[in-house]
Structure formats: C-alpha cells, structure tokens
Amino acid sequence: MIGNYNILKKISEEEIQQQVKKIAQDIGNEYQNREPVLIGVLNGVFIFFADLVREISIPLKLDFVRLASYGSKNVSSGEIELTKDIELSIKGKPVIIVEDIIDTGLTLSYLVRHIKEKEPESVKICALINKLERREKEIGIDYWGFEIKKGFIVGYGLDYNEGFRYLPYILSLEIKD
Ligand code: PRP
Predict the structure, then answer these.
(1) pTM of the model
(2) Residue 100 catalytic?
C-alpha cells in the first residue's frame, strides 16, 4: 500500500520491455523501406514512445500531438480539442499513431479523423495498453502490448493526478479515498 492506494497488480519493467521489443519488431517488418511517421500522443506516451522508437530498426520520422478533454471524458459528449498539432507533413506517408492507453476510445477516434484529413497514405494504431471495460468507440488496434479488462493503471507515463508517471513499471491501483 502506498498512500491511499492498494497495489492490485504490477507489470514489471522486463514484461514491458519484452512487449516493446515485440511491437518494434512487427513495425520494423511491416514498414521496411517505407519510412513511417510515428505520431505520439502527449503526455502519457512519452516513455513508451522513447523506448519504442529506439527498438525499431528501420528509418522512421516522428512527431507529437496533444489533446485536451473537457467535461466528462467518460461520455460520448465529452469535448476533445487538439492543443498541439503535428508539424511534419504526412500527405502520402504511412502513419502510425502511438498511445500509451486506449480507454473509452474517444481521444483516438477524434485524432484518427483529424489525421486522415491530412491525407496520409495509411493510418495504423499502436497502444501499449488496450483497456476494454469502458470502450465507447470501436477502434481497430494494429499493435498492442497488453490487454486489460479493467482497473486503474499508473506508471510508465500514465498518471493519477500527475503523479506516478516516472515509474519504470506499471501498477494497477485500488483507490481507497
Ligand atoms: C490518456 C491517454 C490517452 C487517453 C485515452 O490521456 O494518454 O490519450 O487518455 O483515453 P480515452 O480512450 O478514454 O480517450 P490523458 O487525457 O489522461 O492525458 P495525458 O496523456 O496527458 O495523461
């Protein structure tokens, strides 16, 4: 127990790095000679993204977006706004959007629409964690590390009140407030 939380489950650094390597290998095989553009969704993705791109053994380019959500993100009416767009041109290029976690799917469904307006050659989705319990928007995920039914997940970029992001591993927490 740390503070007012119980740790229910831990995904270790080793388990994470094993999945990062697997995803990197799959992307490397699929995008040989195509120089994909990887787009990371800030802030949560920063550690996964940095680890992933360093494991991919083919040339690639990278950029970032940031989104803000207003109101309740748990309902479809939750407003999502892009607060930082990509700066590279992706017209005609193969794009991979990289997320730390997909939960309701609202962020990604907004982002995919936005990215497709820039006329890339293709758009694929990569997420370290695919969390299924609260999914509202159908999202086809092409590369993922872990599938989790439910739980409150922190660490390795993921936060609770901006804490825990720095941990090199992932914890599933029970909040005892
Ligand atoms: C998290 C995560 C995804 C989004 C997924 O970001 O990084 O971008 O939520 O949730 P959804 O599928 O329900 O839309 P958050 O808004 O917490 O910001 P952060 O990345 O700065 O932590």
Answers:
(1) 0.94
(2) no
